[in-house]
Structure formats: C-alpha cells, structure tokens
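S.,

Sequence below, as promised.
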Amino acid sequence: MTVSRTICLGFITVIAIGTLLLLMPFSTSEGTWNDPVVALFTSTSAVCVTGHIVVDTGTYFSPIGQFFILALIQIGGLGYMTATTFLLLLVGRRFALRDKLAIQQALDRPGIQGGAQVIRSIIAITMIFEITGMLLLLTVFSRDYDLGYALWLSIFHSISAWNNAGFSLFQDSIVRYQSSLLVNLVISGLIIFGGIGYEVIFEMYLWLRDRLFNRPEKIIISLNFKVVTSTTIILLLLGTAAIFFAELDNPETLGSMNLSTRIMTAWFQGVTPRTAGFNSINIGEMTTAALFITIALMFIGGSPGGTAGGMKTTTLRILTSSTKAILQGKEEVVLYERQVPINLILKAIGVVAGSAATVILMTTLIAFTDPEIDFIQLLFEVVSGFATVGLSTGITAGLSTFAKLILVATMYIGRVGVLLLMSAILGDPSPSAIRYPEENLLVG
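The prediction came back faster than expected:
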C-alpha cells in the first residue's frame, strides 16, 4: 500500500460513503430513496469539488442532503490526507514517517518537515476565508430571504466557492446576482484565493507581516510564489478581456447589459473557469468562441497546493518557458533567474500528455454513447469534469447513464491527478543504475 494508493483509495472511500448517505430517503426532499446514479454522480462531484449536477441541489435534496454535500465538498477541497491528518491531530496521535510522506505528496511540498504545522495553518486559513465570505454574503442574502435560510445560503456558497466546488442552492447558480458587486467580488475572491494554493497564501501573509512590522529579516519570495501569482494575474486579465469581446454583441449574455455589469460579468466568467463552476450568465447561450476560450481556461485550471484542478498554472509556465528556451537555442529553462530542474520539466510534460489523453479518451467514449450532442458541448463537458470545474452548457442531466458514469471517472481522475493515479496503479518505480547511450531522432 503505497502513499499514492492510500490517497486514491481514500477518495474512493469518501465517495462511497457519500453515495450511501445521499441514497437514503432523508437526503431527498421527497423523502424517497435516491437514484443510485444520481447519488454516485453527486457524491463524486462534491468530493472532487467539481460542481457537475444532474439534479437541482436546492430543490432535489433535503437540508440534510445539502449538509452531506457540503461536508463532502469540505473534505474534498481540503484533500483526503489533509482531512484525515487533521482528525489525527485532534485525537493527539503523533505523525509517523509514512504520514509525513503522505502529506508531502498530497500537498506537493518539497520536504517532510513541519507537516503538522502546515495542516493546522491550512485549517486556520480555510476557516478565516470561509467565515469572512459567509459574513459578507449574509449582508446580501438577508435582504431577500429570512435570516435562517440566508445564513445557510451564505455558509453553503462561501464553502463551495472557497473549495472551488461550484455547487449552488439556486437553480440559476448566481445569475440572479449578476449585477451585485459584493456577491461577484466575494465569490470570485474566494475562488481565486482558494485556487491559488496554501503555500502562496502563507508567503503572502509572511511578506505582509514583515513589511507592516518592519522586521529586519525579510522573507525571500520563492519561485513558486512568483510563477503562481504572475501567471494567475495574466490569465485573469486575459480571460476577462477574451470573454468580454467574445460575448459583447451576444444579446443572450453580455449584449443586453450596461457597461459596468458587462465588465463585472466578464470578470466573473473569466475567474470561474479556474475550476470554480459558478456562472452569472447562461453558459448554453455563449458563443462558440467564448466556449472554446472557457475550455482553454478550464484545462489550465488553478495552482498546485490549493483547491483547484486542471493542469495547473506552474505546468503552463514551465512548458512555455521550455518552448522559449528552445527558440532561443538554450539548453536550460530559466524562470526569474532560477534554473528549472529537468525532473520538473518531465513532470510537466507528463501532466499535459496524461491530461490530454484523458480528455480525448473520455470525449470519444461519450461521443459513442451520445452521438446527438454537439462536439463543442461534449468537449466542454469533459474538460469541465476533468478540470473539476463544473460549468456546463446544460447537457449533463440529459446524458445517458453510461456517459454519466464516464464523467464520474473523469472527475475522479481529475481530482486525484493523472500522475498520482498512474503511480497508484503501477506502484513505485524500482531504482536503476543502468544508463543508456544517447541517439538523436527527428522531432517537430
């Protein structure tokens, strides 16, 4: 039982428990036994923080069922190892070497020291952001609903946004609040910080602390922080501009809005493909150009170490920097005056190759079972599931049972990661001292 197998089986266990809970009559609003496919799909979508739904969450599930979904979102967003490790800390168990290695691999950390402190910090950051988001959303929702239900709406959407889950208790996601500046800023802010990675938030806090208190020993900003923040800012600005111009003349989306609402909606739709899944316009009415732009943003996803999915921003920067190095005739890849190790370049290539292969395979399988679906809608659905986004053009509920099961597998693969899943299947590689001679071949 390797670390990767522990993580993969852990997610399967949580999904199975969630499926059983959502099957029960007390989880549905009608008080009847749930459809097994609906229970499995919803549980997988919640644990994998995707947001794909085949039924309306707010009306189909009872308050108890909604609570189960929220709990699954929280566990899935934290990650199986983070959640279980936190429980171990609560009962006072000390960490063994295996536990430290599992935390290192699950959080993609460079070392195994300080695992317990990292877990405590992750829980503290999560609570701070989720409570803050809840209080801010409550000021808006309390105007439209009674205090008790408004509080539940605020808690649900804050946790869902922070964990990049995209589940909403509204039938139209947050379309009804597309002109609300506070709702758009709070949810998009939770999405960005939730998907940017805990390590980046740690460094941001330490940097601000040193500047505010004028400490003589300043923190050295890591390469990961520089790459993640700069790439995130660029993608957010480019995504907003691309969605704005692609939908500018579409009367079904931005075309009927005033300028300020257009900009705010374009910003929100540029943020939410970072694996969040909320929408403030009807995705099914978007132009083909906007859908393809969203597919690209979803495939890239968020940043490592956070609640987001996709191939990650750091992978994108490594590949683009590698391409730049080849064009300049260089033999090393440099980012911010730091050389990128060859093993990271190989890992980035493996992530992209594995991700692309998964999307192609799953798209092909669903195309066989549901040939009546337009290709752009089908590709959108699969990429959204793999990148754990949850955005949909409205075809999810109408898919065949086999296609829904394919999406279940797609969401699971996207959450645990292609490389981690292959490592769990194949086992740890055996060390080898054999070196083979080099030989050139034609490329490109």
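Residues 3-426 form one domain.

Coffee later?
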